[in-house]
Specification:
- The protein has 11 helices and 9 strands.
- With about 250 residues, it is of the alpha/beta class.
- The protein has one domain: 2-enoyl-CoA Hydratase, Chain A, domain 1, CATH 3.90.226.
- Strand 2, helix 1 and strand 3 form a beta-alpha-beta unit.
- Helix 3 packs parallel to helix 4, helix 4 packs across helix 5 and helix 5 crosses helix 6.
- The two termini are about 15 Å apart.
Length: about 250
Amino acid sequence: MQQGSITSSIENGIGTISFYHPQSNSLPGENLRELTRQIEIMGANTEAKVILLKSEGVKTFCAGASFDELISINNASTGTTFFSGFAGVINAMRKAPKFIIARVQGKAVGGGVGIACSADYCYGLNTASVKLSELAVGIGPFVVGPAVERKIGKGPFCELTINATEWRSATWAKEKAMYAETFETIQDMDTAILALATQLANSNPQAMAMLKTAMWQGCEHWDTLLIKRAQMSGELVISSFTRNAISKFKTGMR
């Protein structure tokens, strides 16, 4: 299986981290660990005043965890390690001492929704619909749940979680504050992103770091919470019910 790539660069105080995978920008465990590492590095680099997190292509922002890797899990320990990948990314985004802007240019599923909600400011294309599909394969959005609920509230989070097969539009995501703004074209979105990122790159780094800490107050326990959530998913993924659900889902993909 092709592993995709994670790349990063800094220009005019804007640190850009971009991920890609040929399977709809899904993120295998190795890529999640590298994405976590790149966020931590960019967060510590004084040349970067603000971070832009994006993916390549136009159709899908992130399809969540790698399905190929998901169906290969055969014990709870491996399952916990697998689901801890998104925990690492979310916690790295939370703890980075600078604002993170997310560029959602396509559909976001599962962990992709978690990434969008973990950003401090998120732009979406008007075709960038969202879905938490975990329950449909017998698991649940346990790891990304705290980030999604923090961003859009318990009611909308429950709506996404329970109706796991239905897409919610970009308009819905904006109404629920997942997206700060939505755009008709990628060019318009990128223009707005550059304007905000440039503004932030010229703002007081200390003030922004203090604001970020204040905005995330009350989430300090996530280092342990998200790992406990990963353990829950790790146990479910090897259950007979979930294995059957995954098998049916895999058959439907053919």
